[in-house]
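Collaborator request, handled under Task 6.
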Amino acid sequence: MIIRLIIFIAINFGALALGSFFTSNEVTSEWYLNLNKAPWTPPGWVFGAAWTTIMICFGIYMANLWPQLENKSIILSLYLIQLALNIGWNPTFFYFHKVQLGLIVITTLTVLIGYMLFKYSPLLKLKTLLIMPYFIWLLIATSLNAYILFKN
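Structure tokens returned to the collaborator:
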């Protein structure tokens, strides 16, 4: 269990690092600073704290889910798609300034995490709560992206 947990958390934080490569300088860019943002946009430090918590909880979630599945190819596919969408949103939105495509990416990611939440809740029972921070944060992030799309 410990090795599995370390692997999932390491992959999750690797994904965060890749995504932040495209985000860090762009958050202070003229393009982003001049956007009309949602009134509920949290301060910058919240994003780091939220993603750290989310990736730890999601790592624990995956480490608990993995041994319970006979057919691991489905969850592996979902996990890899989740990684690609999560990493891919950052350059799509911040680097290329493709707000509409970013909304499609983050909406797809939100639906995927929602699917995992409901699909595997019978197996994980109370441990399903570990994926809730990810799902809730994605709902918020999707609304922020949508606001930027429709108000700019």
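The cover message to the collaborator said: "The helical segments are 2-23, 30-33, 44-65, 72-95, 99-119, 121-124, 132-151. The domain at 2-151 is CATH 1.20.1260.100 (Ferritin). Please let us know whether this matches your experimental observations."
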